[in-house]
Amino acid sequence: MDYIKVNRDTWNKRTDLHTQSSFYNIPMFKSGRNSLNPIELALLPDVKDKSLLHLQCHFGQDTLSWARLGACVTGVDLSPTAIEYANELKQNLNLEATFIESNVYDFDAINQQLFDIVYTSYGVLNWLPDLNRWAKVIANSLQAGGTLCLVEFHSFNELLNGYSYFHDSEPTIEEEGTYTENCDGTKSKTVTWSHSISDIINSLIQAGLTIESFDEYPYSPYDCFEGLEYVHDKGYQLLHKGHQVPLVFSIKARK
Questions:
Q1: How far apart are CA 107 and CA 76, in angstroms?
Q2: 43, 96, 115, 218 - which has most CB atoms within 10 Å?
Q3: How confident is the model at residue 186 (pLDDT cuts 50, 70, 90)?
Q4: pLDDT tens for residues 81-126?
Q5: Separation of alpha carbons 71 and 96, rounded Å
Q6: How far apart are CA 121 and CA 125, in angstroms?
Q7: Total structural domains within the chain
Q8: 3-state SS record for the chain
Q9: Contact by Cβ (8 Å): 51, 118
Q10: What is the pTM of this model?
Q11: What percent of the chain has pLDDT over 70?
Q12: Residue 139 scores a pLDDT above 80
């Protein structure tokens, strides 16, 4: 199975839905709302005039939010529909950004630039079969002293949802809808892989990066899992037998 083609087709369909959803709220974004969350803003408090590579950028909202904060941004995504919309969005907002259609692994062969920051976040790693290759792409894209900022949904929550916590070379293949409110029951095929926290950390270490921080969070900024409840000024939490489940983690690493 050509998993890249399958997932590309799915993300083309999802982009059409997402750009019309209240989840992404394009009108508010166009009026000036920053789409970034407190976690990533705290990890990267000063991006002004720094080159930032955003891997798996979808249609570029977060990429352009970093641009609004002064970064010189490049966004990469495998979906041509997402990249097309990202370019339309940057032109509409008169922002400087470069958007490249490529899957993560192929980007390594075409990239000619070294960046100060590589950023990637929220629902990215499960689409990748090989984290060692992913980590090498990051290391190869960073200049000496450059920073990786990863913010991702926690693997433990996937276990509670019935998926494996540990990696299996055989992917999970499903027909599923997307996470926005306007999914309307439409389903598409997805090909995904599970990755443990230790796999993620060790792949970065083996690629030559130094882990500077690893943090876990009991709140998600997004209401995109079953059973979440909103906590004022915190986000969304999930309780298991009365205790909070880790929903998000972050890693900051340096080359």
A1: 8
A2: 115
A3: confident
A4: 999 999 999 999 999 999 999 999 999 999 999 999 999 999 999 9
A5: 9
A6: 9
A7: 1
A8: CCHHHHHHHHHHHHHHHHCCCCCCCHHHHHCCCCCCCHHHHHHCCCCCCCEEEEECCCCCHHHHHHHHCCCEEEEEECCHHHHHHHHHHHHHHCCCEEEEECCHHHHHHHCCCCEEEEEEECCCHHHCCCHHHHHHHHHHHEEEEEEEEEEEECHHHHHHCCCCCCCCCCCEEEEECCCCCCCCCCCEEEEECCCCHHHHHHHHHHCCCEEEEEEEECCECCCCCCCCEEECCCEEECEECCEECCCEEEEEEEC
A9: no
A10: 0.97
A11: 100
A12: yes
Give, in degrees to the nearest 5, the angle at Cα 164 between 154 and 24.
40
Amino acid at 16: D
Mean model confidence pLDDT for the chain: 96
Report the alpha-carbon distance of residue 241 to residue 230 in Å, rounded: 17
50 is in which domain, residue-wise? 3-254
pLDDT at 94: 97
Q: Which residues are CB-neighbours of 172 under 8 A, at least 6 positions away?
A: 163, 164, 190, 191, 192, 193, 194
Residue 68 has a pLDDT of 98
Block residue for tokens 């969070």: 217
pLDDT at 149 over 90: yes
* Structure-block tokens of residue 196: 């443990």
CATH number at residue 98: 3.40.50.150
